[in-house]
Amino acid sequence: MDPLLLAALVGIATTLVLFSGIPVGIGLLVISVGFLMIFDGVGSLPLLPEILFGKLESFEVLAIPMFILMGAVVASSRAGGDLYSALDRWLTRVPGGLVISNLGACAIFSALSGSSPATCAAIGKMGIPAMRERGFPDTVASGSIAAGGTLGILIPPSVTMIIYGISTETSIGRLFLAGLLPGLMVTALFMTWSLYSTWRQGHAGTALASVSYSWKEKFEILPRILPFLVIIAAVLFALYGGVATPSETAGVGALFCLITAVIVYRMWQPGKIWHILRDTTRESVMILLIIGAAGLFSYMLSSLFITQSIAHWISDLDVNRWVLMAFINVFLLISGFFLPPVAVILMSAPILLPVIINAGFDPYWFAVILTINMEIGLITPPVGLNLYVINGIAPDIRLQTILKGAMPYVGCMFVAILILCVFPEIATWLPNAMIGGGR
Q: Contact at 8 Å (CB) between 64 and 112?
């Protein structure tokens, strides 16, 4: 059978299986084993366990459960609430400062957790009720937190970036560096829109009139958040200073987050520790299963010459490379509407990377573009995970209202993609300056 026709069949079958509601990892296993048996015969089956577990034996994979543990510790404590409260107290005199506090807290919490849903849940529990109490519309209160939560997969350390690095065999340290400045840029765009929006709707003075804090109240909360900020700084220094590998840094960061939570928030009860370990194990196993299954899926595509044929076909297209990039962005955007970022990256990155490099694009710049597309998918239906997290926090706010509030931030992310296309150095300058060129 023609490989491109076979690729279409695989695409249709994969879509049907994943839309059936079956877990992504199991669905990829079913598709991979099914097509290998049909077109390669049962003789290929003895190789599958080795391929499946071989994908997980890399030392870099260890960073995933460690960063997840780091985020679970922070999310289970009052760190998110204290972080939000600290920014609220210090920014309360800024017009629209409460919205800025929410977004700033999301950005900092993202650096601790690396997870969008965790960021949404931790900051939203405090931020949404506070904004509603001070008269901000539900669209602003819910939309800003839903959008701010997406920063969790862009601002390092990011689990999504680790997965991209594993699937494409690129440097995770360079990926983290590539995501830092774009992450800050997206945060700045979110804050700029929020300031304009609150001013336009007449809520610029809401925070000013509602509450004020003394200098004592501003300083007394700092000791509870400074240890976590020190951990962030230490993790970033270890990563970017070449002191330790991402996996080593993640392990030490998780340990110190756990120690800090026990000391600062007195979380030494066995039940709370068990809850953290249980949630970490559950999420880690889910992601690792998807990684192993995606490795098998990639092997199936390569074994049946699908990957090579698609890459060759795309390379032979007589189109401008920016037109090609536009089509790839549309593909990623649509994929992000229906699938979680982990699945999209693991299935598409190995296929797209040779095409991207052949077209003259930087693979680390592309990782940032891909991640921003995945951010958009987190706040757009039908999946829109962050929308449902916010709805769970504030069930009286309708999904349509949350979506309406989040849409302007989708526009900010489109602007960020355009800026990165015009000025790719925003993503490539820092890793090249600190590490040098190369993959």
A: no
pLDDT at 416: 95
Decide: residue 244, CB within 10 A, 0-12 exposed, 13-18 middle, 19+ buried. middle
**Which residues touch 365 (CB under 8 Å, ≥6 apart)?**
178, 420, 424, 427, 428
The pLDDT, as a whole number, for residue 202 is 64
Query: What confidence score (pLDDT) does residue 439 get?
Result: 57
Q: Which of residues 315 and 36 earns the better pLDDT score?
A: 36
pLDDT one-digit tens code per residue, 63-109: 888 888 887 887 777 776 777 778 777 776 666 667 787 888 888 87
End-to-end CA distance of the chain: 35
Reported pTM: 0.83
Token look-up 């095409």 returns 355
Q: What is the mean pLDDT of the chain?
A: 82
Domain limits, the chain:
3-435
pLDDT at 210: 53
pLDDT of residue 95: 63
